[in-house]
Amino acid sequence: MAVNADRPSAVELDQLSRLLSATPLDRPALAAALRRIEQGLHEHEHNLNHSGGLLDEADKARRMSLSREDDRLREETSTLIRDVQSVREAATYNLDEEDLRRCGSQLLAGLRGHRDAEASLVLENADTEVGSGD
Asked: Into how many domains does the chain fold?
């Protein structure tokens, strides 16, 4: 396996969830949490680009469907970085609180879905490797 798929971490996502549900909304804390998530995603994207993805080349050659999913997830990481940046900027500026919560909740769902998809890809690849000798 080429890269750890644990970005953003479960702790970061739980913190984001708590911040989005807090009343009143703590915009500076939300912006700081989003900045950490954004930095982590940048690091994750760099690692993915450096290593060629979540899967190594041999795994990609054996399973083209996994290779395509790996490529899709790499592209999605770039989109999520832009989305996190957008919500972080909205937290800094005076976007209506309910709109900010809505945008933040949509972002959180996207981040969780992406994290789950990366983990599923890694697990599916591991299942393939374990079953290949049978």
From this structure: 1
